Amino acid sequence: MSAGEREPVGVVGVGWVGLVTAACFASQGHEVWAMDVNAARIESLRGGELPFHEPGLGELIAEHAERLSFTTSMEELLAGSRLLFCCVDTPPTYSGDADLSRVRSVVDQLGGDSDHALVMKSTVPSGTGQSIRRNLPDLSYVSCPEFLKEGSAVDDFLHPDRVVIGADAGDEWAADAVACLYEPLGGELVRTDVASAEMIKLASNAFLATKISFINEIANVCEEVGADVTEVSRGMGLDERIGNKFLEAGIGYGGSCFPKDVSALKQLAGNSGYHFQLLNSVIEVNELQKRRVIGKLTKHLGPLVGKRIALLGLSFKANTDDMREASSLVLSARLQGEGAAVAAYDPVASTGAAGMLPSVELATSAEEALAGADAAILVTEWPEFAELDWKALATTMKRPVLVDGRNFLDPAQMRAAGYTYEGIGRGVPAGG
Ligand code: UDX
């Protein structure tokens, strides 16, 4: 590949990571082949239909469609590109280990081809790359973990903080080629070995999850001592060694990555004989945090049997329709377990949620969900919830009790609008 020439890119798996990767490389002027075994998904992508909600992605695909080819054929992919980005998912198994069956099936299809390099974007345990390389010594292998956040994935891809590129001896050509693809995007290129690159990914996500569980525990103590965790977090975050990101208390982290990656790292450590004590607590705190909201409700409502509770937001965070490991799933099950009826509204996740929450009443607006409710829980920080006419809505509820699971609304304003307001970690100071 001579300087200035664009490298064709192959992407295996057009789930969320694969599709963002494919669209973003196409937007950088590269020819992209995107392959998936799911023929229906490939067909709808060819018709311009996106399988999930991700801001800006549909527009990017439409804008660069002439450089994006969707296929179900591995032969076509291999003929079109020498760098194959593996973007298949690695969901958790019952033991907490990552399920690598889809990765294995990709590797089996590739065989020991010396003209191609497999660039692993899927999150895999440390040691996976080395074992693939041992079995297929001709195939070059690069670990290039993704750090994209749902809801801002396109922007994260095009403006990375850093790009981690791990390769072992003999695969320098492939690592150089991957580096050329990412260089124009800026962000520091971290060139390292495969095992370290794999560990950077798991350790980064586990650290961020630890930060969240830590601030959630601080929030719980704040409630006992009359402190406000949003103030505490602001004061802590200004210390550059701590930083203000991922320091927002709430009802626990969810999504397709943190719960899975924290378990995978814990399991990886355990499988190699090391007991990762801290991660056990991170997981336990997160589980308890999702349930603590129930106590906040019973404090005001007494037993929940026969009560109607409205959930505002279902997705695991705003700007995505993803319900994987969402706090809303645990919450609605707990509420129903206590005998409450649950009504819910989400601006984008309701359609997908129908199958996951069969006994929850899915409302078509926040107003509908709140009407006649004994209490409401704000589960997801959708911007439109800040725009609601809360004062008017209070009069439509049976009891205006509001638990703000994201500390998203202003407590003073909500109290002035007539609500019994409970945030997370927002204790009332002595005499306040
Ligand atoms: C995460 C990582 O951030 C990303 O680098 C990785 O590639 C994939 O996993 P994502 O799952 O999209 O991204 O969501 P993220 O924005 O990281 O949030 C994860 C969860 O933590 C959400 O449930 C969010 O609500 C919660 N969270 C986040 C908090 O509770 N408090 C915070 O301060 C930040």
List its salient traits.
432 residues; alpha/beta; eight-stranded mixed beta sheet; six-stranded parallel beta sheet; 17 helices; 13% strand; binds uridine-5'-diphosphate-xylopyranose
Please tell me about this protein's structure.
- The protein has 17 helices and 14 strands.
- The chain is α/β, with parallel strands linked by helices.
- The strands form two sheets. It has an eight-stranded mixed sheet with strand order 3-2-1-4-5-6-7-8, with helices on both faces.
- The termini are far apart.
- The model has no long low-confidence stretch (mean pLDDT 94).
- The structure holds uridine-5'-diphosphate-xylopyranose.
- Uridine-5'-diphosphate-xylopyranose binds next to helix 9.
- Residues 146-150, 205, 208, 212, 246-248, 250, 253-255, 257-258, 316-317 line the site of uridine-5'-diphosphate-xylopyranose.
